[in-house]
Amino acid sequence: MSVSKAFQDLGAALQAALEEAKTTGTRAFEEGEFEAAQQAADRGKQVHAMIEAVAELAARWEGDVKSEDAAEDTWEVPVGSNGHEDELIFPVLYVLDQIGGNAHATETLDRVEQLLQEKLTSEEFRELSGAWGGPLRGMMESLERQMVRRGLIHIKGKPGNWNLTPQGRMTLMEQQG
């Protein structure tokens, strides 16, 4: 079985589980079993989150396979070698997590900048901001590309709406641990 087929099968199984949770929840609600309805709703939320995670993984897999097939050089940049995006990824993930896992990129970067100003001396902050070329907003597209490529965030809805992925949360926990 190919990896793509496995993702499809897993997605279909999760979709069936979601439909079952909906049916069970609806039936329980109609019968006045509100606790059972709430449990079904909670199960549905969990399954929905898994569906999104599988879809992200499948998209990353397909993107990686297509990139390899096209012989494109899409390797991940080692930490510290690409200017300063890598140094900013952890603070971005931290801030995104603190504000609920999703926010607009400009809000996130403004909060990262504020956090860094609070944690660093003014001389350290001036040196760092000089190295990245001014306000963080100027690095938004580059940071976004890096984090999407690594599966740390995904863009949902309008451009610039950053959403922390399960991989992003795991990376954050690894950095904190």
Provide structural commentary.
The chain folds into 2 domains: 3-69; 85-176, Winged helix-like DNA-binding domain superfamily/Winged helix DNA-binding domain (Arc Repressor Mutant, subunit A). Helix content is 71%, strand content 6%. It has helices spanning 3-30, 34-69, 85-98, 105-119, 122-132, 140-149, 166-176; strands at 102-104, 153-155, 161-164. Strands 1-3-2 form a 3-stranded antiparallel beta sheet. Strand 2 and strand 3 (161-164) form a beta hairpin. Helix 1 runs antiparallel to helix 2. Residues 65-83 have low confidence and may be disordered.
Secondary structure: elements and pairs:
Layout: H1 3-30, H2 34-69, H3 85-98, E1 102-104, H4 105-119, H5 122-132, H6 140-149, E2 153-155, E3 161-164, H7 166-176
Antiparallel strand pairs: 1-3, 2-3
Characteristics of this structure?
177 residues; Arc Repressor Mutant, subunit A; 2 domains; three-stranded antiparallel sheet
CATH topology of the largest domain: Arc Repressor Mutant, subunit A
Shape: elongated
Per CATH, the superfamily of the largest domain is Winged helix-like DNA-binding domain superfamily/Winged helix DNA-binding domain
Helix count, DSSP H or I runs of 4 or more residues:
7
Radius of gyration: 20 Å
Spans of at least 5 consecutive residues with low confidence = 65-83
Q: Order of helices and strands, N to C?
A: HHHEHHHEEH
State the distance separating the first and last CA atoms: 36 Å
Give the class-level CATH name of the largest domain: Mainly Alpha
As for the number of domains, it is 2
